[in-house]
Design goal:
The protein is mainly beta. 3% of the residues lie in helices and 47% in strands. The N and C termini lie far apart (38 Å). 35% of the residues are buried.
Length: 127
């Protein structure tokens, strides 16, 4: 079971990025897939979560709601995180993770409940 987040990079404030989370060894749609980020010297923060075929729900951090959108492409076994109007405060390593789709893990963006983690992708927002 492997997850990999990619698509990060250096962007200017106000620009957008779309991150991708790809999996091998399992089907993402069968799991809750969460996006998390960790800025330098800060703890891991929940960004968004999608429950896949369980009930198709999506959840967002209150601080990021309106600027990020999570979606999936089952044919590509990939989950996306579209991030708009990026700010320097969004600079962080972004990770995707998988957990059972039921229960409170996804709605609460609780990273402690995630079973599988992928390598992160770095997002840097700077002028």
């Amino acid at each position: 079971v492997q997850l990999q987040a990619f698509g990060g990079g250096l962007v200017q404030p106000g620009e957008s990025l779309r991150l991708s989370c790809a999996a091998s060894g399992f089907t993402l749609d069968h799991y809750a897939i969460g996006w998390y980020r960790q800025a330098p010297e800060k703890g891991r923060e929940g960004v968004s979560c999608i429950t896949g075929r369980f009930d198709g729900s999506t959840y967002y951090s209150d601080s990021l709601k309106g600027r990020v959108t999570v979606s999936s492409d089952n044919a590509k076994n990939t989950v996306y995180l579209q991030m708009n109007s990026l700010e320097p405060e969004d600079t962080a390593v972004h990770y995707c993770a998988a957990a059972p789709p039921y229960g409170s893990i996804c709605p609460t963006l609780n990273h402690h409940g995630m079973n599988y983690w992928g390598k992160g992708t770095e997002v840097t927002v700077s002028s």
